[in-house]
Amino acid sequence: MARFLKGIVGAYSGKVGSVVGSNWRSVDYVRSVARRSNKAASEDQLAQRARFALGVGFLSPIKDLLNLGYSDPLQGRSTGYNKALQHLLSYGVMGTYPSLELDYGSIVVAKGALSNLLGVAWTESAPQQISVSWSTEVNRFNAFADDSVILLMYNKEKRFFSILESATRNDGTMSFNFPPVYAGDHVVGWVFTGHRDGVKTSGSYYLGEIVVS
């Protein structure tokens, strides 16, 4: 792939002969058309495709959240979704093809310089109700009283995400009621904090798994 320097007629988009013009993040590129191959995929290629499909299938529904979670300027120009997917493919898939599964504890949904919550934990405080608690410690550098607390939950049986952003660092607690259809399901969760400027975030913390009663 080569960068396309605009001439008198400017850049172009689409296929022209054996090359394709495209644009990504305000940069124009030109690349050659990929050649089709009739050669059967190897076992390693099939395994890599399966890992990729597993990662994309899991993260795609929360693409907007991931772009927020990795929005800290320290993360560079790549999108949050792409960074989260790259990390998942490197550390968040376990097993041997074709028996692959996600390692939820190794999945990172946010990464930044803001301080995450201290002493954070979650429990099922009542049937189908979870409570999350944490220390309210703050400082003037990277932990502010009005930082948003963002809770991401995933129902493994329903394959459904829930996002809760109803508390700040200074609150020290938040709760959530699951619908009755969640009874008996396994739910995993992550938590991270977001700054009032909408850009800085903390790294995410994996809360573990709860079986809903």
Key traits:
single chain, 213 residues, alpha+beta, Immunoglobulin-like, 2 domains, four-stranded antiparallel β-sheet, 13 strands, globular, disordered N terminus, DUF6266
**Total strand count, please?**
13
Evaluate the radius of gyration: 21 Å
Question: Mean pLDDT across all residues, rounded?
Answer: 88
User: In percent, how helical is the residue content?
Assistant: 10-25%
Instruction: Figure out the total of helices.
Output: 3
Largest sheet: spatial strand order:
1-4-3-2
Shape: globular
Strand content: 35-45%
Which stretches of 5+ consecutive residues score pLDDT under 50?
1-9
Number of separate structural domains: 2
By helix and strand content, what is the structural category?
alpha+beta
Q: Return the CATH architecture of the largest domain.
A: Sandwich
Largest sheet, in brief, is: 4 strands, antiparallel
Structural write-up:
With 213 residues, the chain is α+β, with helices and mostly antiparallel strands. The chain folds into two domains: 3-32, no CATH class; 43-212, Immunoglobulins (Immunoglobulin-like), CATH 2.60.40.10. Helices cover 17% and strands 37% of the residues. The protein contains three helices and 13 strands. The strands form four sheets. The protein has a four-stranded antiparallel beta sheet with strand order 1-4-3-2, with no helix packed on it. It has a four-stranded antiparallel beta sheet with strand order 10-9-12-13, with no helix packed on it. A three-stranded antiparallel beta sheet has the order 7-8-11, with no helix packed on it. Strand 2 (14-16) and strand 3 form a beta hairpin. Helix 1 crosses helix 3 (80-91). The longest helix has 17 residues, at 43-59. The radius of gyration is 21 Å and the shape is globular.
